[in-house]
Amino acid sequence: MISANITSTSGFLLMGFSDIRELQILQAFLFLVMYLLTLAGNLIIIIITTLDQRLHSPMYYFLKHLSLLDLSIISVTVPQSIDNSLMDDGYISHGQCMLQVFFFTTFAWAEVAILTVMSYDRYVAICFPLHYDVIMDPNICKWAVIAVWLSGSISGILNTTTTFSITFCRAKIIHHFFCDVPQLRKLSCSNNYLGVFGVDAFLSVMAFICFISIGLSYIHIFSTVLRMPSAAGRSKAFSTCLPHLFVVSFFLSTGIFEFLKPNSESPALFDLMISIFYTVMPPTLNPIIYSLKNEAMKGAFRKLVLSRKFKKIFLSCH
């Protein structure tokens, strides 16, 4: 009955994680906690990298945009999922689904691009420290960020156009907590996959180039760091590189696993849990990972908390 009803409507039905009401409430609560933690952590990074003059280097400039992307990408999927779980209603309109696909694919690709730029920044800082200020000129950094956002927008436009140009003739039931592109494409009975294959091939090649660029950057970084005579120098270099390497590895490995694993008609809970690892967990963990061993970040945060302006804002809220 549900399949028949949803087939005749213009929207889609997001199945989420469970039909059990108690589990839906629990999922909404956990997502809300993670969302609030993500908002707090990434907003703090954006604020301190903007206000603190010591953090106006290219590394923190790129980190600020990574935090902005993290805030954006989690805001595309999680609030909608929380609302669906609390309301016990998985319906999402055609327009909402289209916007979700556009913004999710835009921010996801932009995140891959910014992580690639950040790896190059660390490569220049460690392998060519004397030429760092010339190579990573502020104007070059601004153009790099513009390219990141433009490339994300192109990915969003291509994915949205090809996905919603196909004919949906099956029951519009999506076995996910958001409008996932592979799940949407499974609802099609159209034989015209030329555009879809072309976009997938193009983005796969670009993603492979980013992956190779990151890998080569870190091969050069580690070979340079291990040749450093000073233990303090090696420790400082690793403290700025390892958090980024962990973020890159976590985001790309879970994303690649999701892309390569075979799609099933009714994904198991394991498949949904994997999707959390590349959609929800990275934006939540990134602020913690980047701040944990970064003394400049921790010092800037303490300075912000102890500042008079912050105290006035905090007291005014109470």
Automatic annotation (TrEMBL):
Subcellular location: Cell membrane
Coiled-coil intervals: none
TM ranges: 25-48, 98-120, 140-158, 201-225, 237-260, 272-292
Keywords: Cell membrane, G-protein coupled receptor, Membrane, Olfaction, Receptor, Sensory transduction, Transducer, Transmembrane, Transmembrane helix
Keyword Transmembrane helix set for record: yes
Domain G-protein coupled receptors family 1 profile: 41-290
PROSITE patterns in the record: G_PROTEIN_RECEP_F1_1 (PS00237), G_PROTEIN_RECEP_F1_2 (PS50262)
Pfam family, one: 7tm_4
Taxonomic superkingdom: Eukaryota
GO molecular function: G protein-coupled receptor activity; olfactory receptor activity
GO cellular component: plasma membrane
Record bears the keyword ATP-binding: no
Main location: membrane
Membrane topology: Multi-pass membrane protein
InterPro entries membership: GPCR_Rhodpsn, GPCR_Rhodpsn_7TM, Olfact_rcpt, Olfactory_GPCR
SUPFAM superfamilies, A to Z: Family A G protein-coupled receptor-like
CDD domains: 7tmA_OR14-like (cd15227)
Similarity field: Belongs to the G-protein coupled receptor 1 family.
Chain's role: Odorant receptor.
Protein name (record): Olfactory receptor
Organism: Orycteropus afer afer
Gene name of the encoded protein: LOC103206052
